[in-house]
Design a protein that fits this description.
Blueprint: H1 2-11, E1 14-15, H2 17-27, H3 29-49, E2 55-71, E3 77-79, E4 85-102, H4 106-173, H5 178-213, E5 222-223, H6 238-248, H7 250-270, E6 276-289, E7 292-304, H8 312-378, H9 384-419
Helix pairs in contact: 2-4, 3-4, 4-5, 4-7, 4-9, 6-8, 7-8, 8-9
Length: 422
C-alpha cells in the first residue's frame, strides 16, 4: 500500500482531490492506528465473553516421594508411619468441565460493557476518518490556492517585464524620463521576489499535503483544478443542519456508547454483592505408573460469595458511577461543540460566497483600471506611479480572488466535517 502511494506521487504529473483523499484513507497513520484500536476493542469484547462460555481444562502431573511408606490401597501408596524408607512414583491427570450458571449479572454486564466500548471505538475510528478527510481537503485547497498565487505572481512579473521593455523604448526615444526606467526595473525586481516566495510557498504546501495524506514522498507533482460544488443543504437553517449533525457525527455515537458501557460497568460491579453459582464435572486418574492408574469422576455445584472485602466492591461501584457522570458531561460538551462547529461552518460558507462575489467584481475593475493606465502611460498622459499603482491593485485583487475561492472551498469542507459527511 505504502509503495503504491509513493509510486502514485512519483509518477503522477497531477494529483486530484479524490486521489489525495483515497491515499489518506489507505495510508494515514492516524487512521491505521484507529483501525488497530477498533480491532483491539473487538478482541477485548471476546475476552469478556469467554467467562460466560463452558471452560474445559486438562492437567497432568508427576511426583516422586521418598520416605517411610505403607500401603493404603492397591493403586495409591502413601508416605508415613513406620514402614521402610523407599521412593514412590505418583502420576496424575484430570479433565475438568465447568460452566458459570449465575453471578447476578457480573460477567454478563462486563461483556455487554466491553461490546459497547468496542462500538464506541468503532465510532471513534469513523470520527478520525472524518477529520483525516477534512485535513486532506483543507491541505489540498491550500496547495491549489498557492499554485494559483504562483500564476498571479508570474502574470505580475510578465506584465512588469512588458512595462520595462516599453519604458526602456520610451526613454530611449526621449518621451519618458530615466527615473521611469529605474522605477520599472525596481518593480520588475520586486515582482521576481514575489514569484520566488510564491513558488516556495506552493512547494511547502505540497509538503503539508503529503503529511495530510500520510505518505513520505516527493513534491514534484501538481495539484489539479477542482470545481468545488455546493454542499447539499448549505443554505439550510442551523436547526436543520444540527438535526443531521447530532445523528451523523460519530463523536456523539462514541460518547453515547461509552455512557452505555459505563452504566453496564456499574451493573457488573453491583453484581459482586451477590454470590456466584457454577457447575463442574470432571475425571481424575491417579496411580504409581502410567499403565496402573485408578480413576474417579465427579460432578457438582459450587457456590462462592465474597461477603466482605474491606469495602472494595462499594468503592468500585462508586468509581463506576462517577465515570458515568463524567461521560454524560462529556456528551453534553460534545453537543455544544457540534453546534459550534455547524454554526461556524455555515456562517463561513455564507461569508465566503459573498466575499468571492465581491473579489471577482474587484478583479474585473482592477483589470480595467490597468488597461486604462497603460493606455494613458503610452500616450504620455499617465505617470509611472499611476501605472505602478494599477499593477499593484491588479495583483492584490487577483490574490484576493484566489484566497476567497480557497476560503469557500475550505468552508464547504468544514461544513461536511461539521454535519458528519465524508
Amino acid at each position: 500500500m505504502i509503495a503504491a502511494a509513493l509510486a502514485l506521487l512519483a509518477a503522477a504529473q497531477v494529483i486530484t482531490l479524490d486521489q489525495a483523499v483515497q491515499t489518506a484513507r489507505e495510508q494515514q497513520p492516524q487512521l491505521r492506528q484507529a483501525r488497530a484500536n477498533t480491532a483491539a476493542a473487538d478482541a477485548r469484547s471476546g475476552q469478556a465473553l469467554a467467562p460466560l462460555l463452558p471452560q474445559l481444562s486438562a492437567t497432568g502431573g508427576y511426583q516422586k516421594f521418598v520416605g517411610n511408606t505403607f500401603q493404603t490401597s492397591a493403586t495409591t501408596p502413601s508416605l508415613g508411619g513406620t514402614g521402610s524408607v523407599s521412593s514412590i512414583n505418583l502420576f496424575t491427570d484430570s479433565l475438568v468441565l465447568s460452566q458459570l450458571i449465575y453471578d447476578f449479572g457480573t460477567s454478563t454486564s462486563r461483556w455487554r460493557a466491553a461490546k459497547a466500548q468496542a462500538e464506541a471505538q468503532g465510532a471513534t475510528e469513523r470520527a478520525t476518518a472524518l477529520q483525516v478527510d477534512f485535513n486532506v481537503r483543507s491541505a489540498f485547497f491550500a496547495a491549489r490556492a498557492n499554485r494559483d498565487l504562483v500564476k498571479v505572481a508570474q502574470d505580475n512579473l510578465d506584465n512588469q517585464l512588458k512595462h520595462l521593455q516599453q519604458t526602456q523604448g520610451m526613454v530611449e526615444a526621449g518621451t519618458r524620463a530615466e527615473i521611469d526606467l529605474i522605477q520599472s526595473r525596481t518593480d520588475t525586481a520586486n515582482a521576481r521576489v514575489l514569484l520566488i516566495n510564491a513558488q516556495n510557498t506552493y512547494q511547502t504546501s505540497k509538503v503539508t499535503l503529503n503529511a495530510a495524506m500520510g505518505v513520505l514522498g516527493p513534491t514534484d507533482y501538481e495539484v489539479s483544478d477542482h470545481q468545488t460544488l455546493p454542499v447539499p443543504g448549505e443554505d439550510a437553517t442551523v436547526d436543520a443542519l444540527l438535526e443531521e449533525a447530532y445523528k451523523a457525527r460519530p463523536e456523539m455515537k462514541a460518547l453515547e456508547d461509552q455512557v452505555r458501557a459505563d452504566q453496564l460497568t456499574v451493573r457488573s460491579f453491583q453484581g459482586l454483592y451477590g454470590p456466584s453459582l457454577g457447575l463442574g464435572a470432571g475425571v481424575r486418574q491417579t496411580g504409581p505408573a502410567v499403565d496402573n492408574l485408578g480413576w474417579n469422576a465427579f460432578v457438582g455445584v459450587s457456590l462462592s460469595w465474597n461477603i466482605f472485602q474491606g469495602g472494595l466492591t462499594r468503592s468500585q461501584v462508586s468509581e463506576a458511577e462517577a465515570n458515568v457522570m463524567a461521560t454524560v458531561a462529556l456528551l453534553d460538551l460534545q453537543k455544544q461543540q457540534v453546534r459550534s462547529d455547524v454554526d461556524s461552518a455555515r456562517l463561513a460558507v455564507r461569508a465566503a460566497k459573498e466575499s468571492l462575489g465581491a473579489t471577482q467584481e474587484a478583479l474585473l475593475n482592477a483589470r480595467e483600471r490597468l488597461r486604462l493606465a497603460e493606455e494613458r502611460y503610452q500616450v504620455g498622459v499617465g505617470s509611472s506611479i499611476e501605472l505602478g499603482d494599477a499593477q499593484v491593485a491588479l495583483t492584490q485583487a487577483a490574490a484576493q480572488a484566489v484566497q476567497a475561492d480557497d476560503q469557500l472551498a475550505t468552508a464547504r469542507a468544514q461544513l461536511l466535517r461539521a454535519v458528519g459527511r465524508q
